[in-house]
Model the fold of this input.
Amino acid sequence: MADDRLDTPVDSRRRLLPRSRRSPDAFGRLAEGIARFMGTPRFLLYMTVFCAAWLLWNTLAPSTLQFDPRALNFTLLTLMLSLQASYSAPLILLAQERQTDRDRVAAEQDRVRSERNLADTEYLAREMAAVRLALNDVATRDFLRSELRNLLEDILQERENEQNENRPAQDT
Done:
């Protein structure tokens, strides 16, 4: 009767099935683990050994010890394999759906990363163009050498002219 009271907090009420304290994603991880295991050679080997042992036991053992006789076409084995298949299919589908969700998130992250890389590349291209334009106005080493040579030649020419002007005045 206390369960029907509205002034009782939900957590303290009794339940038919207790609430799980596990992560809501725990079942999905479990399903992925099972699906991943079912796709391994080890699982196939285990299932082959299990079925072979089952068939050998129920074929070669005395009829009083057989629990799934051959005369009934191994009905119990067929039922067990059907049960295993009926649980495996949804678990595999759940694992595939979770993988699809992860792939979708990864694709979105890749798209964002690609957009960022494109923006960075465009920025760097603009910066390189600006540097090229700025370098067109900068004097290069060869230009400076040629200008210095020209200035040196001009200075030497002026000195020579001055000396030539001063010589005739000294001779007279």
Observations:
- The chain has four helices and no strands.
- Residues 20-138 form one domain.
- The chain has two domains: 20-138, 139-172.
